[in-house]
Specification:
By secondary structure, the protein is of the alpha/beta class. It has two domains: about 180 residues, FAD/NAD(P)-binding domain, CATH 3.50.50.60; about 110 residues, 3-Layer(bba) Sandwich (FAD/NAD(P)-binding domain), CATH 3.50.50.60. The protein is about 30% helix and about 25% strand. It has ten helices and 23 strands. Strands 3-2-1-7-19 form a five-stranded parallel beta sheet, covered by helices on one side. It has a five-stranded parallel beta sheet with strand order 9-16-10-11-12. It has a three-stranded antiparallel beta sheet with strand order 4-5-6. Helix 1 packs parallel to helix 9 and helix 1 runs parallel beside helix 10. It is globular. The structure holds flavin-adenine dinucleotide.
Length: about 350
């Protein structure tokens, strides 16, 4: 039995690639696939169509929360609606993803929403018609949320505050475009490191509602199981994406860190899932395994629904002096999300005979 822990981008793609060829089980707490790459849209109030994991993998899906991994006994403990279950595995793929690391900012857990599933949905329900919204962060998710809220809720006064200016790691003209577009949408940008959040206040900034969009941290299961992890809690894997301690354990997506560390992104989760699915099949057929190779293409941002930005990068993820912007940037971003990311999952469903 190949057990896949987590049904996000990485886990679902891996399961869909394997389902016709191997005995598999995908475990996820919700029967719905969470399209995390659009949670800023959800936070702004957009209702998204949902893909059902149990429908995509009939008989191969278990709704449950894995509470512990016991690598020495090859066992998982899973909390399900029918109670605790203990499940044996032959091969385990850890695809439990990540969440916003609220512990990086004192007060964030108590006073901020995040772009994690439930919190993003609560944020949408509690958005006022008017008021001051503070988005804390300077990365992709902070930028996307600030743009989305400002465009879709013109009565809100949206402020973006982060230690660096937004787009600081892009080619300079691309960063200027990003900044000026946010400002045109009505976002006020503060280059300001926020040290702590209190009720209604973060440093010099007052707010009615705050959202923390700091970095991600992997789920704690691998560390709790005694697997070697890095500072972000990601399980350390070799070139084939296997744990060096337990070669029957594989790690993909945000949950795992290969020898050449890479950013937590759908752009890395999907190729990792493809690679592990291919190697699990190769192993079953007695064929040699292939090392994982990541090649990047770009970093894309949505800036509201009408505009976007694609910063092109070299295969090693270093910045190229090239970018696409405006309506073309928005179109490319949408194509990437619906065509490449979700599309690869939909294609795998069709390939699997649905
Ligand atoms: C607003 C936003 C926008 C983004 N935009 C982009 C983008 O444009 N491009 C890009 O490349 N990346 C983007 N990302 C990042 C991307 O969404 C993640 O890197 C990606 O989702 C990682 O996929 P994953 O399968 O590893 O993890 P996840 O998608 O997090 O899925 C993990 C799954 O495991 C489940 N799980 C966790 N713990 C357990 C457990 N104990 N038991 C059972 N199941 C468990 C979770 O419920 C979840 O379903 C964005 C993220 C956000 C929040």
């Amino acid at each position: 039995m190949i057990t896949i822990l987590g049904g996000g981008f990485a886990g679902l793609l891996c399961a869909l690639k394997l389902r016709k060829h191997a005995d598999i089980l995908l475990i996820n707490p919700s029967p719905h696939f969470e399209e995390r790459t659009r949670l800023h849209q959800v936070a702004a109030g957009e209702a998204l169509p949902q893909l059902r994991l149990d429908h995509s993998l009939p008989g191969q899906f278990l709704q449950g929360w894995v509470t512990s991994i016991r690598p020495r006994n090859r066992l998982l403990e899973v909390a399900t609606t029918q109670g605790e279950r203990r499940l044996a595995y032959d091969q385990l793929v850890i695809a439990s993803g990540s969440h916003t690391d609220v512990n990086r900012l004192p007060g964030a857990a108590e006073h901020c929403y995040t772009l994690d599933g439930e919190s993003a949905r609560k944020l949408a329900q509690n958005l006022p018609q008017r008021g001051r919204i503070l988005v804390i962060g300077d990365g992709l998710t902070a930028v996307e949320l600030a743009g989305e809220l400002a465009e879709s809720h013109p009565g809100l006064k949206v402020t973006l505050a982060g230690a660096h200016h937004p787009g600081h790691d892009l080619w300079r003209p691309a960063a200027s475009y990003l900044r000026s577009t946010l400002e045109q949408l009505g976002v006020t940008i503060h280059q300001q490191r926020i040290e702590k959040v209190e009720a209604g206040r973060a440093g010099p900034l007052d707010f009615d509602l705050a959202v923390y969009c700091g970095g991600f941290r992997a789920c704690p299961l691998a560390a709790e199981a005694g697997l070697e992890v890095n500072g972000l809690g990601q399980v350390l894997v070799d070139n084939y994406l296997r744990s060096p301690q337990y070669p029957e354990i594989w790690g993909i997506g945000d949950a795992a860190c290969p020898p050449r560390a890479q950013r937590m992104a759908c752009a890395t989760a999907l190729p990792m899932a493809q690679s592990v699915a291919g190697n699990l099949l190769a192993q079953l057929q007695g064929k040699p395994l292939k090392p994982f190779r990541q090649r990047f293409l770009g970093r894309c941002f949505s800036l509201g629904r009408q505009r976007g930005l694609l910063q092109l990068v070299r295969p090693d993820d270093s910045i190229l002096p090239l970018y696409l912007w405006g309506g073309v940037g928005a179109w490319v971003k949408e194509k990437i999300l619906s065509g490449i990311a979700l599309g690869s999952l939909k294609k795998a469903v069709l390939d699997a005979g649905h």
